[in-house]
């Protein structure tokens, strides 16, 4: 059992972790998710007593880590795979850790076998690949056969077989009644491994719930509707009809429409009424990855922008279209599907014909250019987003602060078309 | 203990068994079948001994150290014995020619001392160590004990060997007394090992190998070099003090080959080194407890 209460860490004037409170229970795999730089590793380091919290406490089994008797026998951790002396061979690395906590030396050979490094036990870890380094780190974590296990990005650099192995290892460790706390920035990985999710962004708690709850609270069902390519006017017609009927329509990259708030038969009826043929009408569920992206988009610190190559481009020959930007590049909010609650969405008429409006290879999502209604663009005022999505009110009510975000997103998406 | 045979090798990693219903029924919590022992400094010392003997930098620095001390010592002995005749050496003992080798070799001990602590910060190993043993003071204490023992033994063996060879080689010099023997072997070894311990503490404070080694080489050489270039007569006193308390001069005291007549004598350099090392090591302990790893 890991318990954090009001955990805060500041480095100078930068707050890495702010007022984080959570519990990690035994017998389950708890995923710890957040974008790069969101404070996952800092939190892990505070749990392990490497960093002293600026405020708050974190305990394992009721003790602060540094007060635990024979900590290595109660807690095992993989912090980063490169935290070894490269000149020492794998077996000696584990041996010195075993001796430090009074673990018999034969246990070293056991864990080397468990992680599959027995053949390179006498090779210096300098020559290890990233995946082998991860395995060595996992071996070190398992060495003390501990009750509590922490893994920071354990699947980094592992091959598919290794990823599967780690996934099963975590599950079986949890099934034995241990506490397993795994950080990752890959939602898809966590969806397969974890039972419980703790999501943080910019050092603050965004969500703390079970994976099934997370899925039902965050994944939005939608219908994909495709009208004939040959006649864009039909698309406009259908869009306004659907919007009038209370649906929410988002255009997709390839010209299809993403409709939420209306059941499939109703969409079909509406299309029939306004005399629009449909080429596609299919039910979809937004992936967990998308739900996670939406939740954390306001909390992403490091985001790419479109590579403008300003001044370096040759003038295009007349009649040549500029290349289509790759979706998702430098377009904050592109990813975001509509949140589950759609009742408030104002009708959004389409005025942008496809493939006409991106001027000079435009970066519609570039911070300066983004049309930010009332400064509520998640990129411009990110601090508001986490506050609104506390676990207390996951999805039941339309959250006030992120509400304009979906508005901003479709607008940008249109530009990107 | 939930498992009846805690020592059974099969019992230890239950997850080695293929996935399936073979796990123990999952209750809240898990108890390891491997007995948990209370740990103490002895465990940390064993661990540090494994660490120090399992990296090549230890072998390299100590190898070069032995090479310098023995090689230069023998060379000096050979040159002196072939070029001097009866009475040339005056009151000098044969032991004093071990000085040059030890002076150069001390740089290797400094390097090893710094690497013992600072290299863990460079590689990130320190995080793994501190997670395995959150009693940070115990880790540093174990490092200090292991390193001091290694440095002392290696210096004693090489300095002792050179001393014995010199005394056998240079029979025209004065026979050394018992205390002179003690100073030129045990005394100088303690001093060099303390110098290494000081470097270890500096390495733990600076946390950067190259930086800490530079500082320690500076401590070793700077006072002497600065003193050489102090021509002004108004600085005469300072110049004299820098000479007398520079590490090469203090090392020379053990061989009665001091560069100046006043200043530290007898066993003084050892007490000075002990005091300085204790203070810096104390600071290293305090900082280690306080800082983030």
From TrEMBL, chain A:
The keyword Iron-sulfur does not apply. Residues 315-326, 335-352, 397-407 have a biased composition (Pro residues). GO terms for molecular function: ATP binding; ATP hydrolysis activity. Residues 353-396 have a biased composition (Low complexity). Residues 2-227 form the ABC transporter domain. The keyword Nucleotide-binding applies. Keywords: ATP-binding, Nucleotide-binding, Transport. This is ABC transporter domain-containing protein.
UniProtKB/TrEMBL annotation, chain B:
The keyword Transmembrane applies. The keyword Zinc does not apply. GO terms for cellular component: plasma membrane. GO terms for molecular function: ABC-type transporter activity. It comes from the Bacteria. Keywords: Membrane, Transmembrane, Transmembrane helix. The chain crosses the membrane at residues 59-82, 94-118, 139-164, 184-206, 213-232, 270-288. This is ABC transporter.
């Amino acid at each position: 059992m890991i318990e954090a209460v009001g955990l805060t860490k500041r480095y100078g004037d930068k707050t890495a972790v702010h007022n984080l409170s959570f519990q990690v229970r035994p017998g389950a795999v708890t995923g710890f998710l957040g974008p790069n730089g969101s404070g996952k590793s800092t939190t892990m380091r505070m749990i392990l007593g490497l960093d002293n919290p600026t405020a708050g406490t974190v305990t394992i089994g009721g003790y602060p880590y540094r007060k635990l008797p024979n900590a290595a026998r109660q807690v095992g951790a993989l912090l980063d795979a490169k935290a070894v002396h490269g000149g020492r061979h794998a077996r000696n690395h584990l041996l010195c850790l075993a001796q430090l906590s009074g673990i018999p030396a034969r246990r070293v050979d056991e864990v080397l076998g468990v992680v599959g490094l027995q053949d390179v036990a006498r090779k210096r870890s300098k020559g290890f690949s990233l995946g082998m380094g991860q395995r060595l780190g996992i071996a070190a974590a398992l060495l003390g056969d501990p009750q509590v296990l922490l893994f920071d990005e354990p699947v980094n650099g592992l091959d598919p077989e290794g990823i599967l192995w780690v996934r099963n290892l975590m599950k079986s460790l949890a099934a034995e009644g241990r506490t397993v706390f795994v950080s990752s920035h890959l939602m898809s990985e966590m969806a397969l491994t974890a039972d419980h999710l703790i999501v943080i962004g910019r050092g603050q708690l965004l969500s703390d719930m079970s994976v099934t709850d997370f899925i039902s609270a965050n994944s939005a069902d939608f219908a994909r509707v495709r009208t004939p390519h040959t006649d864009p006017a039909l698309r406009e017609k259908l869009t306004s009809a659907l919007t009038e009927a209370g649906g929410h329509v988002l255009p997709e990259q390839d010209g299809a429409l993403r409709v939420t708030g209306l059941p499939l038969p109703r969409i079909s009826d509406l299309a029939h009424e306004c005399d629009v043929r449909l080429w596609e009408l299919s039910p979809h569920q937004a992936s967990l990855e998308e739900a996670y992206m939406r939740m954390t988009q306001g909390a992403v610190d490091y985001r790419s922008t479109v590579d403008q190559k300003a001044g370096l481009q040759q003038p295009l020959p007349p009649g040549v279209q500029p290349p289509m930007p790759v979706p998702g590049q430098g377009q904050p909010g592109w990813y975001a599907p509509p949140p589950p609650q759609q009742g408030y969405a104002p009708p959004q008429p389409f005025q942008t014909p496809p493939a006409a409006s991106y001027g000079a290879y435009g970066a519609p999502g570039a911070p300066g250019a983004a049309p930010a209604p009332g400064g509520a663009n998640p990129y411009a005022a990110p601090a508001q987003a986490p506050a609104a999505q506390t676990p207390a009110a996951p999805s039941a009510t339309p959250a006030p602060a992120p509400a304009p975000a979906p508005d901003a997103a479709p607008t940008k998406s249109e530009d990107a078309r | 203990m939930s498992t009846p045979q805690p020592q059974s090798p099969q019992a230890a990693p239950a997850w080695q068994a293929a996935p399936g219903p073979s796990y123990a029924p999952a209750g809240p919590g898990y108890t390891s079948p491997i007995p948990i022992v209370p740990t103490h400094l002895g465990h940390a010392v064993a661990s540090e001994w494994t660490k120090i003997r399992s990296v090549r930098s230890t072998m390299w620095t100590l190898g070069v150290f032995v090479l310098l001390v023995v090689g230069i010592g023998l060379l000096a002995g050979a040159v002196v014995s072939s070029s001097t005749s009866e009475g040339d050496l005056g009151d000098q003992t044969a032991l004093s020619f071990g000085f040059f080798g030890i002076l150069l070799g001390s740089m290797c001990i400094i390097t090893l001392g710094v690497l013992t602590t600072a290299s863990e910060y460079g590689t990130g190993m320190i995080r793994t160590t501190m997670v395995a043993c959150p009693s940070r003071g115990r880790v540093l204490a174990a490092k200090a004990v292991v390193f001091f023992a290694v440095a002392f033994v290696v210096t004693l063996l090489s300095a002792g060997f050179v001393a014995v060879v010199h005394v056998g080689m240079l029979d025209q010099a004065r026979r050394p007394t018992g205390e002179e023997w003690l100073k030129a072997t045990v005394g100088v070894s303690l001093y060099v090992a303390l110098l290494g311990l000081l470097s270890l503490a500096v390495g733990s404070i600076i946390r950067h190998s190259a930086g800490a080694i530079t500082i320690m080489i500076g401590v070793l050489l700077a006072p002497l070099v600065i003193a050489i270039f102090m021509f002004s007569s108004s600085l005469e006193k300072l110049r004299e003090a820098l000479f007398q308390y520079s590490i090469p001069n203090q090392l020379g005291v053990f061989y009665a080959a001091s560069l100046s007549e006043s200043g530290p004598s007898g066993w003084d350099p050892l007490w000075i080194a002990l005091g300085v090392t204790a203070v810096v090591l104390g600071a290293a302990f305090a900082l280690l407890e306080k800082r983030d790893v």
